[in-house]
Amino acid sequence: MGALGAATADDGAAQTPLERGAYLVNGVMACANCHTPVDANGPVLSKALAGGRLFDTPAFKVYASNITPDRETGIGAWSEAELRSFLTTGIRPSKVPVAPIMPVAFYKALTLGDLNAVVGYLRSVQPVRNELPSADYRQPFAHQEAPFANKAFREADLQVPAKRGMYLVTLGHCLECHTLMGKDGHDYGTAAGKGGRIFAGPWGESRSSNITAHSDAGLGNWTDDEIKRAITQGVSRDGRKLKPPMAFAAYARISPQDLDAIVAFLRTLKPLE
Ligand code: HEC
Ligand code: HEC
Questions:
Q1: Would you say the CB of residue 269 lies under 6 angstroms from ligand 2?
Q2: Is residue 158 part of a domain?
């Protein structure tokens, strides 16, 4: 299987753990959106998951890591237990905590089966040698608790569409981008899903949308198909092409069943103007 995998989850029961891992990593979790470098032609597939994208903030200047199994420049020397622990705590085997741009606070939601599937898949991708500059941690940082991440999801819960949708929206860290920052981090308490965060990049600027169930300001009046088209094709209700950094290409791999679940859950987000 290539780094991008071809698996979908139309038939969850028939998926092997490796297929499940590929589906999560390349689909709703969209690791490549940060961990695969981009050039003028888009993602550099020969360097899939080999890192290098720069995130420069007042608190830290870091490069998305090489998460291929290359032993020297990637994570090939980490044990599976170290990788599992890292993905849910953000603490590396070296004990150096990762910068909070890496959404580990959301990945805490992973069921044990899915955590193992993600780890198994990461071990199976092509190792790529790609040496990166080291991180510059300028100010102390903390990982803010993520909405719904402490729900202790169990496989049985995930049969209920809105619950499954809550799980998938958490793994996709949708609310991280779709919630404004207050002075103590994201304002999940009163503005979850209200949007308004600005993202600057080669695309210019984009501002995350209101994805709550509000009928005018949010998605309340959108049809299910309109919401799914926005997520998987990056097209807004009025036909406008949506800008990055939302990972439309990865979300295009989300199964129809999981998209239904995501929409069902978004419809339960408290309407905010
Ligand atoms: C929003 C961007 C973003 C997403 C999405 C993301 N990461 Fe990361 N990740 C980063 C950045 C940036 C770093 C390095 C931060 C630092 O050096 O402190 C990192 C670090 C890591 C590391 C530590 C590697 C090392 O050598 O220290 C691993 C492992 C990792 N990510 C795996 C993943 C996996 C698996 C996914 C998807 C399930 C994922 N990441 C999704 C941005 C992201
Ligand atoms: C990395 C940040 C980021 C993540 C993660 C993200 N989004 Fe977005 N999203 C945006 C931005 C920015 C826009 C607006 C883009 C524009 O207007 O050009 C947007 C637009 C949308 C829209 C279109 C709304 C409209 O009014 O046109 C929907 C629906 C949406 N996101 C849902 C989601 C869902 C569901 C997830 C998780 C599966 C998600 N987003 C994850 C940044 C993000």
A1: no
A2: yes
Domain boundary among 143, 164, 182: 143
In this structure, the answer to whether residues 135 and 156 fall within a common structural domain is no
> Residues 64-80: pLDDT tens digits?
999 999 999 999 999 99
Dihedral over Cα of 106, 216, 191, 249: its sign: positive
> Residues 156, 130: one domain?
no
Length in residues, the chain: 273
**Counting atoms of ligand 1 from 1, which one is nearest the CA of 86?**
29
Q: Which of 106, 107, 211 to mutate to test the pocket of ligand 2 (most atoms within 8 A of CB)?
A: 211
- Assess if residue 85 is contained within a domain: yes
5 conformational bin, left if phi > 0, alpha if psi -120 to 50, beta if neither: left
What contacts 190, CB < 8 A, 6 or more positions away? none
How many other CB atoms sit within 10 Å of the CB of residue 3?
A: 21
Q: Which of 65, 134, 253 to mutate to test the pocket of ligand 1 (most atoms within 8 A of CB)?
A: 65
Residues 6+ apart with CB under 8 A from 133: 63
Containing domain of residue 204, as a range? Answer: 144-273
**Atom 16 (ligand 2): residue with closest C-alpha?**
242
Same domain, 255 and 237: yes
Residue to probe by mutation, ligand 1, list 23, 35, 61, 246, most atoms within 8 Å of CB: 35
Q: Whose Cα sits closest to atom 19 in ligand 2?
A: 208
Report pLDDT digits (tens) over 94-135. 999 999 999 999 999 999 999 999 999 999 999 999 999 999
Residues 132 and 155 in one domain: no
